Design the sequence.
């Protein structure tokens, strides 16, 4: 019977240590419910490709489907688009931040349409250069949009505000 008690005590300690380790890991990742960082989803763009893993397109799909604010961090110097991007629709807000100095989104291969279609409120574009847009660089269809340390150049229209 003493062996059973020792095994049960050891198992209990093992479970407690496992839970503590898991909670520590969650806290470090900022995903602990109630923590400020737990309310934001951060997605990194490391691919310069138009689509595929770690692309801007994939990041937009992930953030648009989130039930919390999303931050897209562009960690590549240049992204060359070949097809229109999905609109920014996350109702909790989307920030697109260029980590690399002058992170560029080149839309020269697009046939028509805006590069960024901002359809959800509380969106921002920070530290990004939009170039060679066949139409609008940014189509703004929502409130509370912020354009910070960014450039829109060689586009038919820089920012088009829809009614």
Sequence:
């Amino acid at each position: 019977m003493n062996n059973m008690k020792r095994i049960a005590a050891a198992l209990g300690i093992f479970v407690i240590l496992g839970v503590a380790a898991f909670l520590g890991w969650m806290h470090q990742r900022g995903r602990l419910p109630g923590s400020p960082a737990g309310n934001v989803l951060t997605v990194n763009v490391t691919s310069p490709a138009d689509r595929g893993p770690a692309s801007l397109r994939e990041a937009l799909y992930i953030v648009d489907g989130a039930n919390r604010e999303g931050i897209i961090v562009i960690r590549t110097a240049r992204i060359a688009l070949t097809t229109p991007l999905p609109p920014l629709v996350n109702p909790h807000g989307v920030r697109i931040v260029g980590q690399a100095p002058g992170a560029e989104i080149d839309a020269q291969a697009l046939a028509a349409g805006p590069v960024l279609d901002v359809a959800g409120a509380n969106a921002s574009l920070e530290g990004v250069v939009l170039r060679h847009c066949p139409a609008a660089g940014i189509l703004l269809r929502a409130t509370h949009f912020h354009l910070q340390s960014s450039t829109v150049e060689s586009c038919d229209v820089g920012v088009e505000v829809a009614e």
Notes: Residues 17-36 have pLDDT under 50 and may be disordered. The two ends are 77 Å apart (CA to CA). The chain has two helices and twelve strands. The CA atoms of residues 121 and 143 lie 5 Å apart.
